[in-house]
Structure formats: structure tokens, C-alpha cells
Structures
1.
Amino acid sequence: MVDLVIPEDFCTNDVKPVGKTSHSDGENKHFIWGKGDPNGKAFSNEDVKAAYAEHGEKMVPLGIHGTTVAVDWDSCIAAGECFGVCPVQTFQWYRTEKDIPAADCMNATFEGTGLTEATERLDASDKSQPIREHDCTICMACQEICPQGAIRIEAANQEWHEKADGTYVKCHPVAADHTLTIKEIFSFFLFFNFTSTNFNHFFASLFAEVA
Ligand code: SF4
């Protein structure tokens, strides 16, 4: 596997997304991170440059699309390997749904009707768009196969997706070494409506088992 171009902390802590691409289902979206890298691998790829020229479009930095399924669009050269291995069709070729400059995907809405086969890209200026990031099973196959190292899969980044989305709810797990307080023990018995009689039966049967 080649080295990943996306740094581990691209979306963590105080980093804010620069935009998003929404799914037309009204529920799902993937965020876009960073200002982009003008030295990304796509900028030096002859096929990509020729395709942009054919469209009459200027190549501009595009950033990282997705959070748990993060694709660096400045290094994506539309090789399509990720399409071939994904079991849930997370990706679509964005230009096969909307043939617009890649920069215009920022804050746009897509229906997810783009093509999903490896060979179905419009041309080398197309990009692997994680439109169904929410369906990813974290199998890691796309990260391992991408010849440019342009994909980073990280399930733990769901927290940063939710924080960007404003839907994050902090959990308070009970610590493994947490000791029940007297109040918690009595709350337990009250909750199950224990009477003094079955309280006695409970402990009698408990001690009988121990004995
Ligand atoms: S990790 Fe697996 S399921 Fe998720 S996008 Fe990549 S190939 Fe698809």
C-alpha cells in the first residue's frame, strides 16, 4: 500500500469543514475539509490536465471530500480502483450525475444517481465522490487499493462528522471500575418495585447459591 496523502488529523479538534455536499434524501451529507493542495498528485497527471483543458476548466485545489471516507480530490486521478472493490457503492463518478467543475460540488446537492462502475468515469477530470459515505462498512478495501493513497478510512471520525453536523451527542459510559453507591443500589430495588419480602428472598437465594 502506498503512503496515504491525507493526514490523520485532517478533521479533528478545532478544524472546521469548508463546506459540504448534500444528498438529496435530505438526511445525509459529506463534509469537505481543507483548502486543498495545489501540489496534489492530480496536478501533475497528464491525463487529468488534458481532461481539464478539454472542458476549458482551470485546475484549482479542491480539498478532502468526506470524513469517515475521506477522498483527497487533489490527488484523485480518477483511477477508479475504489469503485471496483467497494461492496456498498459508496462512491459515484460525480460528473456522470452533474457535469460541473469539481469546485462547484462545494455546497451542492447530489441525488446519488451517478455511475458506480470503475470504468464509467466521464474522463480523467472526474472524481470519486463518497456520496454514500453513510453506507460504508469500513472494510478498508478502497484505502488499501487506491494507487495514489488518496483515500483515508477512519470510523472514529464519525464523531467529527457529527460535530460538524451539529448532531453529536456525548455519551457518558460507566467506568469499568465504577463502584455502585448505596443510593444507586436502592434506586435499583425501587425501580423493580422490590418489597421487603422479596428483598429477603433475593438475598436468601443469593447466599444459598454461594453456599
Ligand atoms: S472502506 Fe470498504 S465499504 Fe467503505 S468506502 Fe471503502 S471500499 Fe467501500
Note: The chain has a mean pLDDT of 89.
2.
Amino acid sequence: MTSVAAPLLASRPSEFRLRDGTRVLVRPIRAEDRDRLQVGLHQLSAASRYQRFHAAVSELSPQQLRELSEIDHVNHLAWIALDPTLPEQPAVGVARCIRLPQEPRTAEVAVTVLDAYQGRGLGTLLLGLLSQTAAAQDIRTFRAYVLEDNEAMLRIFRDLGAHVGRLDVGEYQLDIPVPEDPGRLPDTPTGRVFKAVAARARREAAGV
Ligand SMILES: CC(C)(COP(=O)(O)OP(=O)(O)OC[C@H]1O[C@@H](n2cnc3c(N)ncnc32)[C@H](O)[C@@H]1OP(=O)(O)O)[C@@H](O)C(=O)NCCC(=O)NCCS
């Protein structure tokens, strides 16, 4: 792992402010987040659940919850955002990627943000954090399956230079380069968030 990504993986959560000033705590996901994932799924609108799973998922089994929260952060990486203003600090967003065994430098990626928190830059922030730790694990490409009407997700991935292929009716397969040096990303909204995340990681690595 590179020295830049290591502090981001530290157990202490980092606080970020979203575009509208909303505070969130972000950290790599842990086993204790199992219940947060189920509660979060229940709070997600049916439309968002469909965009995420491409199916009408309304409940995760105990085994699925374990698989999504007890992860190695090498082949399966995930970041969770919590709302620090509420007593239980519920999950408000997750970005995860899982390495493909047959293409070990590629990982399937998915991002989910609760409807009430969408459109404030949280999805971009979580993906920026995930990119840093994925790059440190030698993951070079994110692969995503995105429904064609998912403007927000397509916007973020296109900003990152995604190669977009039509997979099936209504669905795209995207291959997104994981930025090795976010500083060289173009000056888009996504590029700016990724640069800010990288700058924060550098500051924390330097102990500033
Ligand atoms: C897709 C998703 C993760 C994006 O998260 P988010 O926090 O809302 O995204 P951001 O606020 O970072 O916005 C990303 C960009 O999309 C744009 N955007 C947001 N909602 C949009 C919409 N409905 N239509 C068009 N563009 C939209 C934003 O304006 C932003 O661009 P900008 O930075 O230039 O303004 C979130 O909407 C979500 O969880 N959707 C349901 C699950 C899902 O679709 N997951 C993807 C599976 S791969």
C-alpha cells in the first residue's frame, strides 16, 4: 500500500463537508456496519434500489450483509459515509469495488447514496476515496454496469474518462480508468473532488 492511501484506511473516520455544507464522516467499511447497510437499504427509494441492483431488492440476507461488511480491503474495498448529526450515525452512502478474479487489475464498482443526500457531491466523494485505496491495491480499472437513464452515475464516470459500451437494451458497461494521479484529472466537478480527496490524503500522510 502506498504511504498516501494508508492514512485514509486508518480506523479514525475523516470529516468532509459536502457542496452544501452538510457534514459527513467517511471511513472504510467495517463488520460493525452490517446493520447500517440493512437500515440504509430500507431508506433507499425503490427507484434508487433498482438503479443499484438492477432488480427490486428490498432486503439483504444475513450472509449478504456479512459479505458486504466483512471485507479484506485488498480484493474487496468499500467506503461508507455516516451522518454524524444523528445519534446512531446512520449510513448515508457507500462506494465499493470487488476485484475480478479473471482480470485482477479490474474491479466491479458500485456507488449508492441515500436519496435524501443525493446531488450534494457525496457519490463523487466516496468514489474519490475508493479510487485512492483501489489504486494502492493495484486496481487500474473500475468496471460498472449502469442503466441508461442513470444520468448522475454516467456523468461521474464520463468525467473520469470512462469507455462506454452498450451491453444490453437499457444498460451500459463502462470501463473507468482509476486515476493514478488525480492531480492530472481535467478541471471538471468530478476532477475537482478527486483532487481535493488526494490533497487531504497527502496532508494526513504528512501528519498536517
Ligand atoms: C448515482 C449516485 C451514486 C450519485 O451520487 P450523488 O451523491 O447523487 O452524486 P453527486 O452529487 O456526486 O453528483 C454527480 C453528478 O451528477 C449530477 N447529477 C446528480 N443527479 C442528477 C440527475 N438526476 N440527473 C442528471 N445529473 C445528475 C450532479 O449534478 C453531479 O454533477 P456536477 O458535479 O457536475 O453537478 C446516486 O444518485 C445514487 O445512489 N443513485 C442510486 C443508486 C445508483 O444508481 N448507483 C449506481 C450503481 S453503479
Note: Residues 185 and 191 are 5 Å apart (CA to CA).
